[in-house]
Amino acid sequence: MGYETGMEGGDLRRPFGGMEGGDLRRIDGIFQRALEVSTAERAAFVAAECGGDEALRRRVGRLLLADAEAQSFLERPPGGRGVDQEKIGDTIGRYRLLRQLGSGGMSTVYLAARVDAPERRAALKILHRGLDDDEVLRRFRQERLVLARFRHRHIARLAGGGTAADGRPYLVMEYVDGVPVDAYCDRHRLAVGTRLELFRKICAAVAYAHRHQLVHRDLKPDNVLVTADGTPKLLDFGIAKLLDKAMIDAGVETTREGVRLMTPGYASPEQVLGLRVSPATDVYALGVVLYLLLTGRRPHRGDGSRHGLGVEICYRKPEPPSVAVTHRADLPDGSELAPRALARARSTTPWRLRRRLAGDLDAIVGRALRKPPEERYPSASELGIDVARHLMGHPVRARRPTLLYRAAKLVRRHRGAFAVLIVLGLVLLGWGVAALW
Amino acid sequence: MISNMDGTEITEATGGTGSFERGDDEITELLRRHGAGHSETADELFPALYGELRRIAAACARRERADHTLQATAIVHEAYVRLVEQPGIAWQSRQHFLGLAARVMRRVLVDYARERGRAKRGGGADRVELAEALSLGSGGDPDLVALDDALRGLGAVDERLVRVVELRFFAGLTLEETARHLGVSPMTVTRDWRRAKAWLYEELHGDGL
C-alpha cells in the first residue's frame, strides 16, 4: 500500500468514509445552510434538518467543527517556508527589518529602521498571507488615512504603510519601547492610587479615539505599554477593526472567528456572542485591565477551555476585587499569587488593600464589567471621570447615591472643616449645658 | 516562432538556463489557438504546461539562495508572465491558462510529494532536492498526497469546490480572480472556499465522518 498504488490509488482508503455522492451532497446541503444560520441557532437548525437521523446530524456536526478549526488551513500557498516570507535585513518600503517584536495569528511585527535615516525606528506590522484581496487592500488604505490623522500623547502614532512587493499590506507605527502596564505597575510596586492615575490616562486616550468614532476592540495589557518615564501608550488602535474587516472580506464569519482573533481573556460578552461592537466594548476591556491592575488577575479564568471561558464571560458575575484579593490567584502561566505578595506589589498590606478596594472601586469595576453593554459606563471618558471622582473623594456614579454615602463622602472630603464644626458644636453644647446649670 | 511547433520535446530541464524560448512559444501558440476556439488544444496544453512548470521550478530552485525557498504560486506567476502576458493572447486564453495552470500545479506538487516519499526509501536524489527546495511537507504544509486524494473525493460533493481549491490554493489566485475565472460572484467563491476547507480539513485532520 502507499505510493506504489499510483495515481488512481485503487486500494487506498476512500475519502469521506467511502460514502456515495448522494449522501455526501445531502450532508453538504445541510452543512451549507447551517453556515447561514447564526451560531446560537445552529445546533437546533441542524437537528431539525436531520429529522432524527443521528448519524447524519453527527456528520454535519463534524463538518461544522472542521469549519471552525480550518480557519488558517490552506490559506498559505504550498511550498512557502513559514508564516513570514520576509527576513531580518529585508527592506519593506522605506524600512529595513531589524528584529521581530512579535507574531500573532494575523500579522508579524518587526522593529524596523528607516533606510535613509537608520536612527529613526518604527514598528512595522505586516499581514500574513491570505488576507490580501483587492477589496481588503482598498479598505485597508482608506482606514489607514483615518488612523494617520490620530494625534494623542498616549496613542502610538500610525506613521504610514503600504503594500510589500508580494502584495501584502503593512503598517508602520511609532515604536514604543515600553512594558505592559500590569508588569510596569508591579515592577515599580505602584500603590493603588498611582495605578488609578495611570489608568485614568489610558481612559483618556481611549476616550479620544471614541470621540473620533474609533473603537479599539482588543484592549489588553500587551497593547498598553508604559515607557521608562511612566507614559502610557496605546498600541494597535483600529488594527483590530482592520483585521476584522479583512476577515469578513476574506469570507470568515465574525460571530465566532472574530473572537478567535482576539485574546479571549479580554473579550466582552458581546464579542463572545458575536454581537455588535461599540465603545462600551472598550469600556468592558478597560474594566478587565483595571481589575487586573487592582487584583493581579483577570475577572474570568474559565475552566481552561475556550468554551468554558466564553460561558463565564457571558453569564457569571465576577468576584468583586475586594473579595478576589483575599485569596490566591492562579495566573495563566500556572504560578500562584498569594495575597501577601499581591499586597506587597501594591506597597500595602492585604488587609489595607481589601479595605482600599471595597466600596467605590468594587462598584466602578463592577459597572465597567456589566454584561449588557448599555448598563456599563457609556464611554471610556465616563469611566475615567468616575475614577477621578473616587480619587478626589467625590461620590462615584457607579454607586447608588444614598444620603448616607454622599454624607460620608462629604465628611471625608472636608475632614478639617467637619472637625472644626464638631469641636465648635461640642463647645456650644458644653456652653449651653453649662448655662443651664 | 511558429516554426518551433515541429515537435520540440518538452522534457524536464536537468541543466542549463535561459533556454525556455522554444517551449514558451509553443505553449503561447497553443494558448492562442485555444483562445481562437480550438478546444482540442487543451489536451496538448496540459503536458506542455506540466513540463514548463517543472522546468521553472527547477530553474528557480537552482537560482534561489539555499535559505530562500520558492513558492508554488510564484512558479505559476512566473509561467503566467512568461507565457501569457504577451501581445496577441486573447483574454479567454489568459483565463484558460489560470484554470489549467492551477490543475497542472496541483499535479506537479503532488508528484513531487510522492517522489519525495518514494525517494526517502532510496534513490532519486536530485528530485528530492527539488522537493526540498519547494520545502514541501515542511512548515505546516498539508500532506499533499493526502490532500490530492481528498480532493478527488471532494469532486463527488461538488466539482466546483475542487476548482476553487485548485485556483485558490495551488495557483494562489485571490478571491476576486477565482470568481472571475469561474464566472460566479465573489460571495459564491467565499462560501465554496469555506465549504471545501471544512470538508478537506475533516478528511485530513478530523476523526472521520
Describe this structure in a few short sentences:
Chain A is of the alpha+beta class. Helices cover 48% and strands 12% of the residues of chain A. In chain A, a hairpin with a 4-residue loop joins strand 8 and strand 9 (232-234).
Word description of this protein:
Helix content of chain A is 48%, strand content 12%. Chain A is an alpha+beta fold and 437 residues long. In chain A, strand 1 and strand 2 form a beta hairpin. In chain A, helix 2 packs antiparallel against helix 3 and helix 6 runs antiparallel to helix 10. Chain A starts with 20 loop residues before the first helix and ends with a helix. The N terminus of chain A is likely disordered. Chain B is mostly helical and 209 residues long. The longest helix of chain B is centred in the middle third of the chain and has 30 residues. The N terminus of chain B is likely disordered. The interface between A and B is large, with 46 and 54 residues.
